[in-house]
Amino acid sequence: MVGIIAVGAYVPRLRLQRQAVAAANGWFNSALKGLGKGERAMANWDEDAITMAVEAGRDGLEGYDRGRLAKVILASTSQVFADRQNAGVVKEALNLDDSVGTMDVAGSQRAATSALLDALYAAKGGAGEILCIASERRHPAPASEQEMTGCDAAAAVLVGAGEVAADFLGGHSVSIDFVDHFRADDSEFDYNWEARFVRDEGYARIAPAAVKAGLVKAGVTVANVDYFIMGAPMKGVNDAVAKAVGVKPEAVVEPLAAVMGDAGAAQPLIMLAKVLENAPAGQIVVVVGFGQGCDVLVFKTTAKVGGAVRGMGVSGWLARGKPETNYIKYLFFNNLLALDRGMRAEADQKTSLTSLYRNRKAVLALVGGKCSKTGTVQFPKSEISVNQNDRAQGTQEDYPLADRTAKILTYTADNLSYNPDPPGYYGAVEFDEGGRITMDFGDVEADDVFVGAQMRMMFRIKAVDEMRGFVKYFWKAVPDYRAKAQAALAAE
Amino acid sequence: MASGIRDKVAILGMGCARFGERWDADADGLMVEAFNEAIADAGIDVSEIGAAWLGVGFDGVSVGPSGIPLSMALRLPNIAVTKVENYCASGTESFRGAVYAVASGACDIALAMGVEKLKDTGYGGLPVRSRGIVSDMIGVSGSAPGNFAQIASAYRAKHNVTPELLKRAIAHVSVKSHANGAKNPKAHLRKPITEEQCLNAPMIAEPLGLFDCCGVSDGAACAIVTTPEIARALGKTDLVTVKALQLSVSNGWEMQGAGWDGSYFHTTRIAAARAYQEAGITDPRKQISLMEVHDCFSITELVTMEDLGVSAEGGAVKDVLDGVFDADGAIPCQIDGGLKCFGHPIGASGLRMLYENYLQLLGRAGDRQRKQQPIFGLTHNLGGMPTQNVSSVAIVGLADA
């Protein structure tokens, strides 16, 4: 059997309150006032499609032997680099073997479903196990409806053959150059056509036919569909398409509009990951991707579905949210507002690509060294061990630190050096299994930072080289969110 | 077994420019100001200087590469001039070069100059700079206060000191230095402050407020050294000689190894132990008369009292609040205002500290002169950050001490 082995997700911690957006922009676009309800996930300044993909990937690979992985696919319409493989950065951050294949998929709101469909076909053909990640850091124009409905988030679906959590029963694609919106390669924002056209001529005509054809291919009767995942952000559209196909109304999966928002191409995969948190065995799950056509994927959950979510999952990340009421901060984090950053922000952030290549495991995967003689753990690796009692030379073996927890040893909150979200928190952390790093902290509040606080590593943007358009990535210590998220989930 | 530097080299003359926001001067002007005072004090001709060292911390903004800027500023007679950089110990490092040259017999008279021109960047604080290509990828590009502030977090945790008590103790450090700086005509900051002002100042890097941070200044300081014999032959009677000159440099243990708890400066403890041995000092709290330590931040000075062994470990908070290091205390620390108020032109600072001890030992410190005759004066520099630093300890004293 070929299908889904596991799923993972990532939803950034900040949740922009739509009321704050409506309050700021309602004077200009009064239609926004009616949308000022609920919250939308908002990437921190140091997150993008790549960093969120890494976190979703880690979440999906929790408890999984990464040595089994054959390929990583990253689907996004907000890829960071136009020419430097984004999936390749994710592969490095996940510390995968160089023999793992990588591929970027882009260009359509269907990017993730198409990527997943192809991954499943490839797995069927014996390609091995494939991690299909969808990640979006969206960039809507200020005061647009999309700014209200959209969000930043990611999901990962691990597919392969064997005892899967959900069987892939079949899929179908139609391709039609239906342009509901577009964004040229050098454009900042989407250009959107009238919503009524998109709904009535697009979704209403293209999606039902595709879904019906998909169900036929999968050999599933429409009445048996238990979960219908489409994720169109427009009100009523998912229900209307389901109704047109004949799917029972209660099967339509709620698209997380109130608590997260629409993560573009990643949305169907995020909803799929959410569904697999609780779906019992033997359920039919239909996933639809819409954009210049339509993708349809049909799954049936198995007795293994209970093991599909091993990490935080969508619900865990949603439970980790922190309300953000400062719309100005959102604008600044998204390069939509030029604040006076001061001269300290002028520091040249040029990266030496030769040095990055040599040090790629340390920089991108947080791989340190462990002395094969003394067991001393250190970061970064060095020719001569840091052990003061044994200057063993050339004895260090790769020692990945990214998935190990650490405790704060020293810290400060720095108001002087430039940080897009001041104060900048940083300090020394000591790993519970040895080794220490002085590093930036991410996603922190003053109360989170104290000597002995438990931290977990996250892949983040370190700085942006604006002069050359390069993004510098490294790891940051964030408060270990897992116990808190679990407690929040249990309390729900 | 090395015999050490004790009493092998004497200070022939010293000079120090007025520190501060020297909008009027370039680096060469500051160097000439310090040099003119030093050479007049030494009573020699420039042609008698055999070799020179230049200490600069930020050459990108201060002077540029090489020893040439010093040679040009002073129009030295084509002698060897070497530029040294060792973070905030650069000034002491230049002194070390000159002292070693004389002690080795390679030259009779050598000059050490430290200079920094920091106020030409357009913004307050130290210039933002790279720490190398690899560090730029995996290191924290924090500010100096942010780096040093971390000592406070670990110190509080280790010694179970409340944030309020530690904040009050470090406020006392700064209040004391402001009081001292007010009496020093060459100091950058000459206004006394109150504890209340200090506690309520804007936060720079938790828990360091504005008054917990030293002045970022322009300035230069200069020493001319020779052997005691030559100094006497030149007519000097009261000789200040070098008793100890030690430097300890982190090897990565604090930052990457295991065992350091973040609450003290490992290198200072090593440099101090070596310096006391070299100078023959067995009880620093009793024997050291004056200290000029690297009070880049108030917390640094407080912790340094323990690292130098003048306070017991965990005892500096009490000693500071008891006034042990005040100008009229048992061991005055920063009687000239320190980095805090005299100012901190990086490359000049080590020599500025020596300048004060030199003046105090010779009874030439004016309004701020310590009444009780000093015997040993200690200077201490700390460059870098708590996890990774260069620490120097120098002790000077009267030749017969």
Would you kindly provide a brief summary of this structure?
Chain A has 492 residues and is of the alpha+beta class.
Keywords for this entry:
heterodimer, A: 492 residues, alpha+beta, Peroxisomal Thiolase, Chain A, domain 1, OB fold (Dihydrolipoamide Acetyltransferase, E2P), 2 domains, nine-stranded mixed sheet, six-stranded antiparallel sheet, 13 helices, 26% helix, B: 401 residues, alpha/beta, two-stranded antiparallel sheet, 11 strands, globular
Helix content of chain A: 25-40%
CATH topology type of the largest domain in chain B: Peroxisomal Thiolase, Chain A, domain 1
CATH domain class of the largest domain in chain B: Alpha Beta
Rg of chain B, Cα atoms, Å:
19 Å
Largest interface, per-chain counts? A-B, 52 and 45 residues
The outline of chain B comes out as globular
Order of helices and strands of chain B: EHEHEHEHHHHEEEHEHHHEHHHHEE
Distance between the termini of chain A: 35 Å
User: What general form of chain A does the structure show?
Assistant: globular
Distance between the termini of chain B: 23 Å
Largest sheet of chain B: 9 strands, mixed
The level 1 CATH classification of the largest domain in chain A is Alpha Beta
Q: Just name the CATH architecture of the largest domain in chain A.
A: 3-Layer(aba) Sandwich
CATH homology superfamily name of the largest domain in chain A: Thiolase/Chalcone synthase
Radius of gyration of chain A: 23 Å
Q: Tell me the count of domains of chain A.
A: 2
Show unreliable segments of chain B.
none
